[in-house]
Design a protein that fits this description.
- This protein folds into three domains: 219 residues, FAD/NAD(P)-binding domain, CATH 3.50.50.60; 112 residues, FAD/NAD(P)-binding domain (3-Layer(bba) Sandwich), CATH 3.50.50; 105 residues, FAD/NAD-linked reductase, C-terminal dimerisation domain (Enolase-like, domain 1, 2-Layer Sandwich).
- Helices cover 31% and strands 23% of the residues.
- It contains 15 helices and 24 strands.
- Strand 10, helix 6 and strand 11 form a beta-alpha-beta unit.
- The longest helix is centred in the N-terminal third of the chain and has 25 residues.
- The mean pLDDT is 96.
């Protein structure tokens, strides 16, 4: 007899979502976690990073208060208070951690702290901080091992002058660095470049690919709006940049790099390495348990069920080679639990998931880019609508923005791409249109409130009819 219905290995978003969903279905669950439940997302990633992005937004807004008719006392200039921003961030993380821990307890999930490894007989052996061990058996095991920042060979991370996003979101520094180099222009690099730039830090972004801001993911037209906005606010960007060996000096770090224009170097106070994340699967007992890993260290799964190569063992979240997003881990957890229950889960359609980058302005998308749709053989029709003439955007003073819809000619919406204020909240209308394979005319017939940012979505859909209102 097994100790539990399900043993969950890892307490990040995939792990706690698995535990909560399974427990709500009446299953008995044990969750093994080496540190704190919540994982990278809660403690080092999504939540603290977005709290710092919001601090940057507030600072930016206050700095431009006069433009909105709010006068600061003469001679008073807003200044970033980095310790206060970090204190608020820590408070948000603490409250969420407390709430999550309480929810797991109420659902009667047995949280076991320690390092868990799969065993040859399909159980999980847990080694606690005191060195003691215990073995937990389940009718199924769900691996949720998570991920860690990728490193650049030869570039030592010291956590002070050379850091990853994990250290940046958990900094206890008394002040911001004055000069920062961000290596990598993907989602993580772009978000931190946005924070530093808006907080007044002299920031340089170095990216190996030709399009340095969000080189992979959103439609290029949308990414370019963000790139221009960041540059206008002071970010220095170098594409096709190959970074050399860092040189530590008494005053900072010298970062040499080469671009098609030649060799160059900059001196900064801190280097943020943000070149992506890797699965943490090297010490989970995969080989002993007969769980196959890919050559990049991801757990190999059947994406329709999330089953691994070993019967009764599933894997979800960042340890699987799927989009490294917390909400994707949630969805995969539901698929795994429902399959265990003998139901017919709806697999995640990874080509149509919602993506968000919480920069200023925000970027969000779902479905195909224009270029990808053409490569896939679709005869496409594309329409765009700028936020420059949107009344609500003008009121907010945030007119850097664009809605771009990619549709099959005389067919459904294939891709939705948006950049602008609150794109993270506005994009779900487009996400639903992509996933329901809605026709642009069907969305265009829906009424959008005025004045609102969402009007830009409705008006872009209307233009597929050959007619338009304001566009």
């Amino acid at each position: 007899m097994a100790d539990y219905d399900i043993v969950v290995l890892g307490g990040g978003p995939g792990g706690y979502a698995t535990a909560l969903y399974a427990a709500s279905a009446g299953l008995t669950v044990a969750l093994v976690e080496a540190n704190k439940v919540g994982g990278t997302c809660l403690h080092r990633g999504c939540i603290p990073a977005k709290a710092l992005l919001h601090a940057a937004e507030v600072f930016r807004t206050v700095s431009h208060a006069g433009e909105h008719g709010v006068r600061l006392p003469d001679g008073v200039k807003p200044e970033p208070d980095w310790p206060a921003a970090n204190k608020r961030k820590a408070g948000i993380v603490g409250n969420l951690h407390k709430g999550l821990s309480g929810l797991l307890k109420r659902r009667k999930v047995n949280v076991v702290f320690g390092w868990g490894r799969l065993t040859a007989d399909g159980a999980v052996a847990v080694t606690g901080e005191d060195g003691g061990t215990q073995t937990l058996s389940g009718r199924a095991v769900i691996i949720c091992a998570g991920s860690a920042p990728r490193a650049i060979p030869g570039m030592d991370i010291d956590g002070v002058k050379v850091i990853t996003s994990d250290q940046s979101t958990n900094s206890d520094a008394e002040k911001l660095p004055e000069r920062v180099a961000v290596i990598g222009g993907g989602v993580i690099g772009a978000e931190f470049a946005s924070v530093f730039t808006d907080m007044g830090v002299k920031t340089t972004l170095l990216e190996a690919l030709p399009n340095p801001i969000l080189p992979l993911g959103p439609d290029r037209d949308v990414a370019n709006v963000l790139a221009k906005s960041l540059a206008r606010r002071g970010l220095t960007v170098h594409g096709e940049a190959r970074v050399g060996t860092l040189e530590h000096t008494g005053s900072g770090v010298v970062v040499p790099f080469e671009t098609p224009k030649g060799s160059d170097k900059i001196e900064v106070d801190q280097v943020l390495v943000s070149i992506g994340r890797r699965p943490v699967t090297e010490d989970i007992g995969a080989a002993e348990a007969g769980v196959r890993l890919t050559d990049r260290g991801f757990v190999d799964v059947d994406p329709t069920t999330m089953l691994t190569s070993r019967p009764g063992v599933y894997a979800v979240g960042d340890c699987v080679n799927t989009p490294g997003l917390a909400h994707i881990a949630y969805a995969e957890a539901v698929v795994a639990v429902e399959h265990f229950l003998g139901e017919n889960p709806v697999p995640v359609d990874y080509g149509k998931v919602p993506w968000v980058v919480y920069t200023h302005p925000e970027v969000a998308w779902s479905g195909m880019t224009e270029a990808y749709a053409k490569e896939a053989g679709y005869d496409v029709e594309v329409h765009k609508h700028s936020l420059a003439g949107n009344g609500r955007a003008m009121i907010l003073g945030e007119t850097d923005g664009l809605v771009k819809i990619v549709a099959q000619k005389n067919g459904p919406v294939l891709g939705f791409h948006m950049v602008g204020p609150w794109a993270s909240e506005l994009m779900h209308e487009g996400y639903l249109a992509v996933n329901w394979e809605a026709l642009p005319s069907e969305v265009g017939h829906l009424i959008h409130a005025h004045p609102s940012l969402s009007e830009a979505i409705g008006e872009t859909m209307i233009t597929f009819s050959g007619r338009s209102l304001h566009g």
